[in-house]
Design a protein that fits this description.
Length: 326
Amino acid sequence: MLDGVERSALNAFVHFAVSDDGSLFYVPWRRRAGLMRLVWLDRQGRELETVREAPGLTRVSLAPDGTRIAVAIADGDDRDVWILDPARGTTARLTFDPVPDSQPVWSPDGTLIAFRSDRDGGGVFVRRADGASDAERLTQAGPGYHIPYGFTPDGSHVLFTDFRDYADQDVMRVDLASRTVEPVLAAPFAEVHPALSPDGRWLAYESDETGRFEVYLRPYPDVSRARWRVSVDGGQSPAWGPGGDELLFSSGGVLMRTSFAAGVTPRFGRPEVLFATGSTERLGPQFALSPDGLRILLLAPVPGDPIADRPEVRVVQGWSRAAGGS
């Protein structure tokens, strides 16, 4: 009926609508493999080093020791996980399936990579970071998508999001030993991007329960005991400082920081601006902190990139009559 219609990055939604008078509105398929920059910045946003500039970089995760970087690289409809070693100047491919593999996250000891895959019905998989093992399934996604965000500090579980709809996402965890899956946060709205504190006692995440994304905090693993709001004016992509005494998050394209002090009632400082990220991602930018917390690894589009096709909306009037509708 119509070829070349834009779809979401997860291939979950196709962007079209038909009005009551039979007009068709759709977004034509476009290339997303625009130029992206993976760059080290200091806390003032000054560029220190460009790690890589290439089309199709979509996700980034820094190894615990800061020496290697896991990224997902898109090539057409396919995505695969690669391991970058900037010091040695090497790049090693970790996944080879002809389906999207993305969202890599490192285990605390740096030996494993958990990632999302669409293979065999989809789910969370895990493989040795050096490639010396086959990929093993941790979860079965079913009708939705399972998107990993991190390991627990002891390496026993992987936290992931069960994505069923943009407005319906829950935080789950899977036990690496038993493959048992259980809910962590489940509510009738989107709860995404779980981030555990270095000591494993506090869970930061973003939720749209107020109508827009804000960053919240709960004790872990007893998440039902209490809840506190961290961000003030919108918040996404929470990440802990290596000492567990601060939280970084994005708000309106700006990277923010707030201090954190644990206690029966934790205390937060007033959020302060670090620098603009240049990211327009719905769930926030892709960034990671160095092990000493002094540098920030940021994945952002190259300004003025001429490669990626820009989105547009097309209208076909009388489409239902032309297509044989009533």
